[in-house]
Amino acid sequence: MEQHPKICFSGIKEVHYFSVPDLYKRGISYLHSFFKKWNNEPVLAVADTYLMIDHEAITRIYEYNPNMNIIVILRNPVDRAYSSYNYSVNYGHHVPYTHFTDSIDMEMSVADEPDIAKKNNVGHFYAGKYCFHLEKWFEIFKREQFLIMTTNELKASQQLLADKLFKFLDIPPISTEVKAANVQAVPRSKGLEKFLLNRDHKLRRALRWLTPGFLKRWIFGSGLVDKVHNSNRKQQEAEKLSPEEREVAMSYFKNDIESLEENFGIRNVL
Question: Cα separation of 89 and 84, whole Å?
């Protein structure tokens, strides 16, 4: 999307304005501050990995723009859950479980977790209940406002997926090239990563209070935060998921996947 001349993407990849109450309280000027480079492009776009599971954010987005176009890309829920689990263990969000699938029991009450970041970091299986979450969105937004794609489509043909995306946004198609971005990685410094991710970190709170508003806006608008994140990562492959655990995980998602196809005609997720 960043490659298209008709799209102005936010200054940083993910802006958690609608999903993090503390950021939402800052008002709409905070969200708009990430589009300093807007030059009358007809499409403004932003990503937020919390939104699928953040049911409270749905109303916030609707109140901001009831005609919002929403793009969802779904990964195999088992692979997504295992990737999420490894990320959280590697970055210190929780200790390793005896088995990856122990997360099914460990996150039994995650739906009631008020902190969306914590919900995201421990709800590995919860986040993969795609039909369950989409039904919440369709209670407020119209189905035609959504473009729902899968990573299997992306792997099969990047250009066909891009053409579908640009048609949905009603802008001319262009030739695109997509490269893998979020390869399996671990932090070089867990301390730095916790500082970057934990909004309640004492040092972060102090810096937030001491730093002038214009300087904070410059830091976020410059993409510096994303650059520091990326520089603190080193590639490291995770252990392969055992056939036994994959089977247990698949059985967990079976009903949701069937409902996804039956209710919304979404196939090719696995």
Answer: 9
C-beta of residue 1 within 8 angstroms of C-beta of residue 37: no
Q: Mutual orientation of helices 243-264 and 77-90 as an angle, nearest 10°?
A: 130
Domain ranges, ordered by start, for the chain: 7-184+237-264, 185-236
Residue 88's CB: how many other CB atoms inside 10 A? Answer: 19
Structure-token pair, residue 146: 């959504």
Q: What percent of the chain has pLDDT over 90?
A: 66
Tell the CATH topology of 7-184+237-264: Rossmann fold (3.40.50)
Question: What's the pLDDT tens digit per position in 245-257?
Answer: 999 999 999 999 9
Interval 58-80: pLDDT, tens: 999 999 999 999 999 999 999 99
**pTM of the shown model:** 0.82
| Cα gap 136→114, rounded to integer Å | 17
**Strand-pair partners of 146:** 70
Question: Strand 233-235 to strand 185-187: parallel, antiparallel, or no bridges (unpaired)?
Answer: antiparallel
Joined tokens for residue 177: 């090239």
